[in-house]
Structure formats: C-alpha cells, structure tokens
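Colleagues,

Please find the record for the two-part complex below.
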Amino acid sequence: MSLSITPYELIYWPGIPGRGEHVRLALEATGTLYTDVAKSDPGVAVSTIQSLVADDAGDNTSSSPAGVPGNPPGLAPPFLRHGDRVLISQTPNILLYLAQRLGLAGAGSAPGDGDLGMYHVNQLVLTALDGLSDEAHDAHHPIASGLYYEDQRAEAKRRAENYRGERLPKFLGYFERVIKGNEERGGKGGWLYGGGLTAADLVVFQGVDGIKYAFPKAMGKLEASGNYDRVFALHKAVAGLPKVKAYLESERRAPYGMGIYRKYPELDDE
Amino acid sequence: MSLSITPYELIYWPGIPGRGEHVRLALEATGTLYTDVAKSDPGVAVSTIQSLVADDAGDNTSSSPAGVPGNPPGLAPPFLRHGDRVLISQTPNILLYLAQRLGLAGAGSAPGDGDLGMYHVNQLVLTALDGLSDEAHDAHHPIASGLYYEDQRAEAKRRAENYRGERLPKFLGYFERVIKGNEERGGKGGWLYGGGLTAADLVVFQGVDGIKYAFPKAMGKLEASGNYDRVFALHKAVAGLPKVKAYLESERRAPYGMGIYRKYPELDDE
C-alpha cells in the first residue's frame, strides 16, 4: 500500500448485503483499496453506526469518535469516509462520489458531453434503487420498516402481488429499453450507458440478483418470457467480470438474509 | 430575453405540485428563466409525458417528438430539458443539475472543500425527498401507487399512524440537528448547509409545507412541542424569500390536491 493512497472506508451494518452492497460492488469491481468495518470488526461497525446516527448524537458528527468535522450528520448507513475530510451518506450520493473517482460515471463515453454522463448515470442509479431495491424491500415491509414482517404479513401479500405483477415488470422493461437504446446512442452493446461498466450496471446487477433470490418463481417466469433478455444478460455479464466474480466467490460477499431481499415463499408466485 | 440564454424547460403533469414542484422552486427561488408546459398547455404536457415514458416508446427518447437524442429514456416525470442536448429525469438528479448551475449547491461556503458541497447538499436533498415526500405519499398509498386510495384505506390508516408517530418526527429531528450543526460547522444560522439557501432548504420547505396541509393536526402538535423550531423557522424563512413569496402568491403555484400530499382526515391525528 502506497502512502499516497487514501483508502475508502465503508461503514455499514454487519451480516447483510443491504444498501452497503452497492458501495462494495463499486469498490470491488474497480479493484479499489477500501476498508469494511462490517467485515473486519462487526461490533465496532454497530457501535460506530449507532454513534453516527443517534438522535442525541449532538449537533455535528464530530461529537462521534467516527465523525468528521465539517460534514453534516447522516440519518442512516451506509457511510463512506474518505480521508480526513470526507464523510458522506445516502447510497446514491456515495455512488455519485465514487463513480466520479473510479471511472464508473460514463465519462468519456460521449465526446463533448462534458459532465452529462454523470447526470445520466445518476438518473439510472436512482431509478434502479427505487424499483429494484426500495420497492423490493417494501414488498415485505409495506406498513413500517420498524415493525416485524409477521405484523404486516397480510399487507405484504397484497403489496408483493402488485410488485411482482406490475412494478417489477415495469422496471425490468425500462432497463431493457435503456440497454437496447444505448447502442443506438453510440454506446457499447450490453451495458446501460456509454462505453462500458458504470455504477448503474452494478446497481441493476445487485437488484436483479437480490430479486432472483427473494422471488425465484416470479423471476423465473419473467426470465422465461424473453422480454427482458438484455437485463438478465447484464446480470450475468457483471457477475462474470473477473474482479466481480472473485468478489462474489469470496467470503467478503455476505449471504442474503433478513435485509432488503428476503425469501418468503408466500410472497412469491405460486 | 437575451438570445444567449437557454431557458430550462420543466415537463411535468398539470394540476398538482407533485415532484415537479421541487424543480419549480429551484427555478423560481433563483429567478431563472424557464418554461412550464403543465401551466402553458396542460394537454401538451400530458401527451409529451406519455410519449416520453410509453412502454413502447422505442429504444431512445429521440423517437418521441419531445425526446433529445443521446439521452437515455426516463421512467417518469419530472423531466428537465435544457437546450438541444440535455434531457434528464429523476427529481434529485434534476436538482443536482440545477443546484450546480444556479448556485444552490452550497459551493463556496466552505473554502477549500472543492466539490464537497455538492455531495453534502445532494445527501440532504435525498434524505428530505425520502422522508418528507416519498414516505408522506406512501402513507396514503402503502400497497400500490396504481390502486385507488379507497382500495388501500385500512392499510393506509396503519401506515399513516406509523408515519405520524415514528417516521415524521425522526426526519424532523434529523433536519433540526442538521440546521443546528450548520452554524457550528461554520455555516449560516437558520439554513441546512453552508452560507445560505441550497436546494436542500427548498426540498425541506416543500416537504414541511405539504405535510402541514396533509396532516394539520399532527403537524400542529409537532410544531407546538418546540422540538423542531429550527425546521419550522426554515419553512417560514424560505416562504418569506422575496422571489419565493412572489411565486407562492402567484397563479403558478398549484394548490395541493390528489398528489403527494392529500388531506384525508382519517389519516391525521384525532
């Protein structure tokens, strides 16, 4: 490790992929140096997050041992710390920061576009997080994230049915269109934007991956329909990138469990 | 109007403030030249949006008369068109674009911070949209945005109770902390970030404003508690900015109705 490199520090809950996984994938796919306290010391990860998000944590993150003065506090993890001055939160915001620095923002793919690629990729990242992460979560927690699933099972059954039948196909169809159109816009076939891998591809990969785990029957039918071949091919292509493949096969990749993507058979197709 | 100025074009549904209102407020608060097809020609607004988001709209927005080649399609309005080359969607993404160009990104407020203000303001914008817009909407539509309220009234009652009692105070408390801390971080008292108005203040303003309309009793109690004085003062301060005040008093400001913020008394406190 060169002294001139400031490693990125991911601060997220231990034990689940969760929202932190999007940050991990951006770092892993680019072979970037980072620390991951959830893996290196789960107990410290929990206490660090608690100090950063506590209601009575004070007025500034500097009151937390993990805080960095000058940065507004965050409401929830993931957090990304980068050196002595940067501590930011909100998954799409962290991805915006990393994409700009790790070559995942589609820059250079459309000559003369200036910073337009940053906004295009950000738009796709936000939409993928909405439809393939947040709504997948709300399918099992439609009433309150603070209540147990068992206390909102009836409502979850209704919401999951709508998600499988309406929302999920809508989002998959959208990304199918985006991939198809990218080539016509002068980009590289198979990817969402521009000439290669961006943060948006990684978020769609993780969303499809998690939803395949949570709703195997519904996703099996959607895949078999042939209507979303490009999206499923993108999932496979990202999984096959050498650095991503090595990560997915490592112990660093947490198994799905009680996070965003949960396997409740009663919420899946019959 | 100088020929050298390229006006911003907001494309959003007519008749409701909705997500488009965040874009309008950024443009209005800065006295920026823009067109607003929802106001100038509601019929054209609807047909334009339909052509931009249609499932069979083709692979590229260029197949829509409103499209701009080179931009990936969007899933939903608001859209922002800027000149011959830029067409972007996703509310926080449009605000990121505008904040950078209209001086609403907190730039210059912390000397030596480079582009850090952009990420800080984006973080606050995203959190305000999550808690004061999306979750306020889901309080009356917890099962499916495509179903009528009447078909999810029982579930809405449960979700709204959780929103009023848990989520809303959590978000208000967070922004109270952010405002309080900004002064300690060297910023200007009363604002969320840096030396003055940013896009984040405008989103919090609109969220508080809409929630006051939708949940007048719950918000009355929260305001009377004295725990969120800075947040309510920020709402008042933004409303009192001369350009914002003039806008709010104009016909351009759409009344609340059947959009994000809805007044269903059975979802409010007793």
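Residues 108-112 of chain A have pLDDT under 50 and may be disordered.

Comments are welcome before we finalize the supplementary table.
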